[in-house]
Fold this sequence. Notes:
Strand content: 5-15%
Largest sheet: 4 strands, antiparallel
Radius of gyration: 23 Å
Strand order of the largest sheet: 1-6-2-5
Shape: globular
Mean pLDDT: 79
Order of helices and strands: HHEEEEEEHHHHEHHHHEHH
Helix content: 55-70%
Structural class: alpha+beta
Number of strands: 8
Amino acid sequence: MEQKHAAMEQKQKDMLGPYLWWLQDPQLVARFQMFFGIVATGTSSVAGITSSGEDTDYPMNSAEEHIVVKRTANQSSKRTGDKKMYDFQPGPSNESDETLSSSSDENLLTNNSYAITSWLWYCVFVFGASLGDEVFYITFFPAWFWNIDGYVGRRIVLIWGICMVVGQALKDIICWPRPPEPPVVKLEKRFNLEYGMPSTHSMVGVTVPLAVMFFTHNRYEYELPYAVLLTATWSSLVCLSRLYMGMHSVLDVIAGVSLASVLLATLLPWIDTIDEILVNNSFSPLLVVVVGLTLGLLYPPIDKFSTTRADTTNVIGIWAGVYIGYWLNVQMGYMKGPLQPPPYKIILPGISGCGFMLMRMCIGIAIAYATKAITKALTYPVLCRINNLDRSDPRSMCKLAVELPYRFLVYGTVAFNVVFTSTRVFTIMHIEREMWYTEV
C-alpha cells in the first residue's frame, strides 16, 4: 500500500510540476488545521510532537489536553448504504489509544486522535461542511418547492445535478487520493472511500448559492450587495471546511471552484431553455428517464469500491423525479403561468404563515421518508431476483444492474412525491402555498 501511494505521489509530482504540487502538499492542509485549532495527538503529543513524529509549533498546554476528541468505531455498527458511520466522542486525552483497524487492505481507519483547541472554529467549519451534505439538501430543496419558489428551485436542482455528475465522474477518472493521514487529521471518515480531485463540496458550495442569487436578483426586489455577501460567505465556509475537515488538498478545492465557475458560465445562458423543454414538452418524461439512465450507464468504471457512482445515481434520480413531477403538474392543469411578470416584492410570512410553512415541512418530509422506505423495501428484492442475486449479500448492491435502477427508482420516486404528491396533499389540507401554482 505504501509503495502504491509513493508511486501515485511521484506521478502527481511529475504531472503538476513544483508550483502546483505545492498546492497539493498535505502539509498545507495540516498547517491550516493547526492554525484553526486541530492538533494531532499521539504518544508524544504533550511534548509538541505529532503522531507522525514531526515537531509542531503548537504544543498542547494542560487545559488543551482535556478537550481531545477521539474517533472510535460506532459500536452499534450503523450503516447507511455501504458507508460506515462513526461517532465523535469527546473526552480526556489518553496516551494508550485503542487501535482502530480495518479488514480491508486500504486501512481506512487509523489510531490517530486529535485535540480541538478552538470550539468556535470547530462549530463554524462543521456548519460550513453541513452546507454541502446530504441532510442539508434533503431539507433545502423541498423548502424551495414547498415554501419559497419552485421556479427557482427547479433551476437550482438542474445546475446542482449537472455539477455533481461532472465532478463525481472526474474523481473516478483522475483517481487522485485524498490527503494522507498523517500529517492531516480526517474528521469525515465517510468520504474516505472516494477520490479527492476535484472537491465536489467546493463545486456545489459555489454553484448553488450563485445560482440562487442569479435566478432571484431579477425575480425579487432586494438589495444585491446583501446577496453577494451571503453568497461569498456561504461559498467560503463550504470550501474552507474541506481543508479544516482534512478531506481535500488546496489544489482539490481550487480545481473544484474553477470547474464550478466554468460550468456556471457555460450553463446559465441555457438553463431557462432547458427548464422550458423539460417542464412543457410532451416527451419530457421519456427524455428525462433515457438521459438519466444513460448517464448512469456511462459513468466511468472504478478500480476500487467507491460510493461516488451510487451518490451520482442518487443525484440523477432526484433531478429526474423533480422534472417528471413538475411536468405532470403542468399537464394536469395544476400549474399555470404567473398572474403578473416579475420582479416581485418579498413578503415575509406572519405567524399563521410560519405555522403553515412548518406544517408543510413536517408533512412533506414524512411523506418523503415514507416513500424512501417503501420503495427501498419493494425494489431491492425484485432487482435481486431479476438478476439472480442473493439480496442478503452486500456485494449485490454494488452490481450495476442492481445499483443503477435501485437508486434511480428510489430517489426519483422520493423527488417526484416531493413536488407532486406532497403538493396535492397540501392542497387537500388547505395548507398549500398561495403562489405555488404560478411558478412555471
